[in-house]
Amino acid sequence: MVPTWRLRAAFARRLSDMYGTEVPAYTTLLEVAGRINDEVAGRDPDAERLGSISRVTAERHGAIRVGTEDELRQAAQIFAALGMHPVGFYDLRDGEVGAVPVVSTAFRPTGTEELDRNPFRVFTSLLTTSDRRFFDADLESRLGTFLGRRRLFPPELLQLAVQAEKWDGLPEPDAERFLTLAVAAFELSPEPVDRTWYAELERISAVAADIGGVAATHINHLTPRVLDIDALYHRMGERGITMIDRIQGPPRWDGPDVLLRQTSFRALAEPRRFREPDGSITAGALRVRFGEVEARGIALTRAGRARYDDLMAETDRRMARHPDADRQETARTLWHRTFPRTEHQLAVEQQAFFTYHPVAGRPRDGRRPPADLVGLLDGGWLTARPIVYEDFLPRSAAGIFRSNLTGEGTRDTALTGTPFDAHRLSEAIGRPVLDPFALYAAQQDRSLRQALATLGAGAALRALGDPEPAP
Q1: What pTM does this model have?
Q2: Domain spanning 2-297+389-432: which superfamily?
Q3: Between residues 366 and 141, which one has the greater pLDDT?
Q4: Which tens digits make up the pLDDT trace of 376-392?
Q5: Which of 47, 224, 240, 407 has the smallest number of CB atoms closer than 10 Å to its CB?
Q6: How far, in Å, CA of 51 to CA of 179, rounded?
Q7: In three state form, how does the secondary structure of 111-136 look?
Q8: What number is the average pLDDT over the span 108-112?
Q9: CA distance 44 to 231
């Protein structure tokens, strides 16, 4: 049997090879990221604090887009075969600039051991065809007809995916067949694109056209992880590859790295065949796929995330008043004033998630551990190791989407959007969309309880209670 995690690792590698063939600039991105990672690991003794260099080097996240709930459920089945579950709900429809009529989740492993083995993720977006801000009833109906005619995933692939989920893996011959079919399902289709239909959707949104205007889905981007994203941004430019206008997410500063910083090279014009209104086939090009890269930091608690969101909103307000100011410097100044400057502060203020571990060999002198986290950390009873952020930021994702669009699209803000939340997305997928905060909190809580049990700190265990209550 080929176990689930090996299927996932093999799928990520093969997908990366395929995408590098289709988008050569992605191979350049991997080369630059790999060199920077080696350089950082060679000079920084804490380079592996948020993951081993082998994990960081192998780490990828992909992105796909689907048009219907049936397609989403089928994609979920394939990812379930790889030990990947829907985590988090992201609504990208409400940004101030650009029309992105999708809601999204990320399929990824959830267990610590599985993430350490291979943390492959796929950010998966669903077109919201019933949202009247983007699609009127007639266009929704025609989209439904078009999407209903296509088949993204062959029945044999879906059957193998069911078996792999049930058996936690596949026999070698079936595993090979599954991987071959799964990678092929995400290749760029050679089928001609109906130029008139694609253009109609593109006026609404380039993302809508990329989903509903083509015969199949495809990998939209495949993202490596880098340990110094600012260095990568400059080096890609030196290679002659045009990057988007800025790095999304928190600013670079001298405090702890938190959440996620992302950027990408701009979508490239790729040759495509078009079917013209008279039925003839012509050559053309589309700009829909780009090369994203990410730097991951520490996962924040709900309180920490609220502070982050407030800082981003205040940065926006200041930039609106002073549009010629440097955004990074504006954000950095705010962060230095109000955001915790050390991991210790993040831990004791419960602004971020950590695993906790008893300090080995420390003489206790008959003293009992204190019943509070600050005392346990300051007194040297526990050490805190940061939990890496495994998820995404809707604002950053929408920002990168918009930076790579061919136009602003259209959206009727006078109309009300279709309500959509994690519960409705769970119903659409047929599987629960997991709360990332709950996953991090459970990991932190397990480590803390194990550490206190090792210390024999029953009173402290009872006093600490739940470090991250449910919303």
Answers
A1: 0.91
A2: Uncharacterised protein PF07063, DUF1338 (3.10.180.80)
A3: 141
A4: 898 888 999 999 999 99
A5: 240
A6: 27
A7: CHHHHHHCCCEEEEEEECCCCCCCCC
A8: 94
A9: 15
Q: Report d(CA 247, CA 39) in Å as an integer.
A: 21
Spell out the domain ranges in the chain.
2-297+389-432, 302-385+444-464
Per the structure block, which two tokens stand in for 170? 């596949």
Residue for token pair 């002073």: 322
Q: Is 376 left (phi over 0), alpha (psi -120 to 50) or beta?
A: alpha
Q: Which residue has the tokens 């009529």?
A: 101
Q: Which neighbouring-strand residues pair with 222?
A: 62
Tokens linked to 103: 């809601």
